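Final report, Chapter 2: Outcomes

The project's central promise was a pipeline that accepts a single protein chain and returns its three-dimensional structure in a standardized token representation, suitable for archiving and comparison. That pipeline is now operational. To close this chapter, we reproduce one record exactly as it appears in the project archive, with the input sequence first and the structure output second.
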Amino acid sequence: MFEADVAAQVSLDVLDEVHVAAATTMAAVYVAVAAFENSVRQLVTSVLREAVGDDWWESAVSAPIQKSCRGRQDEEEKHRFHTQRGDSPITYTDFKNLSNIIRANWEHFADFLPSAEWATAIFDGIERSRNVIMHSGRLDPEDIARIGTNLRDWVKQVGA
């Protein structure tokens, strides 16, 4: 499942097999959630760049969201030895930020999302599971299935 060189670099072989097995089960869920989260960021960026222009972050995103993302970015910049999340402020958003950005700019998203509430419901459900995984928890099969349903619904509505 894992690339052998990466598994070796992180010393996966020295960790408890039970914990590795549990985490391995969640690895596919993590991949799906991470890919989805980044695809939403890309969608928001492309829609607002096209609608508002290259300065969309400054003109279409609220000051509190900008401040929150800047704070996260500033905190990461203190640790220059470590890889940063990204160069763009949107890489520092969470699902709640993304939902609020869509709501504030609804006129630009109305053509392909049924409602801002629908998008928020998708984000909320996935974020709840994301938080379990990101804090080393293990999801029940029903939660995993719900993520799959939400992702399929999103892709059918919006595209990949």
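Archive annotation: The mean pLDDT is 94.
This record, like all others produced under the grant, will remain available to the consortium after the project formally closes.
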